[in-house]
Amino acid sequence: MKDSIKEIFYYTLINENNEWKKVFNATLLIVAEEKYRKGDYEGAINLLNKAIELNPFDGIAFEKLAWCYNNSDKLNNTSTRQETLDKITSSLKKAISLEPDIASHYNAMSVYYNQVDNPDLSIEYLQKGLTLTNNKWDKDMFLANIGLDYSIKKDFSTAKKYFNEVLLIEPKYDFALYNLGAIYNEQGDYAQAIKYFERVDKKTNLSDNLKGNYYYYYAYALKNVNNKQKAKEYILKALEIEPSNENYKLLYQSVK
Q1: Within the chain, how many helices (H) and strands (E) appear?
Q2: pLDDT per residue over 219-256, tens digit each?
Q3: How far is Cα 127 from Cα 115, in angstroms, rounded to an integer?
Q4: Domain 184-256 falls in which CATH fold?
Q5: Greatest CA separation for the chain
Q6: How far, in Å, CA of 160 to CA of 146, rounded?
């Protein structure tokens, strides 16, 4: 006799135009993801909470819920910040307790610890997540994020070690190249910083926030090797992204 596996589908019922319809848990998760990508975090939170009611054993749903809270405006409001942080950590602790072998849960928890200025615990969770993945791209991400935490701690020698390990796996990893350039800038080695900034893809997929900083740090290094013309070119790119940034404006004034 063959073994059989019983697959369970969780669903709820909704009434549309006096007609009852089944809504499956997977559908809720898909729509929640769409809302998240569009920046409708409250809408995503409502759907994820419904999905969790249907299936309280889905660690991925709890992780997604934490990411929604992490991006919510409530995190930037002093009156709701602590409550939002509590929701993030409780969601992620639940995700990890349900699915302790899922690497992404540990990455998400590291983001929480960065929010509360605790890079040491962030590193601890990233190191754990790193042991759980064999995927090249995930490994790059964990190594780069560990490098970033060591940069935050001003332990630049260790940070460089991790970023260089990323580049051994993927030599065109823009986030690692940008951060190595930023470290050398911080250390006053502008020529070395420029070498890394030059390797960042001109069509980089860095987020706008990081892209603005990349252009700023690149311009800063160029200014310090007396290449003001090229420095002006890059600080103008930074100002296109964030025209009100005071640091960007001050650097522009010094090279125009």
Answers
A1: 13, 2
A2: 999 999 999 999 999 999 999 999 999 999 999 999 98
A3: 18
A4: 1.25.40
A5: 81
A6: 10
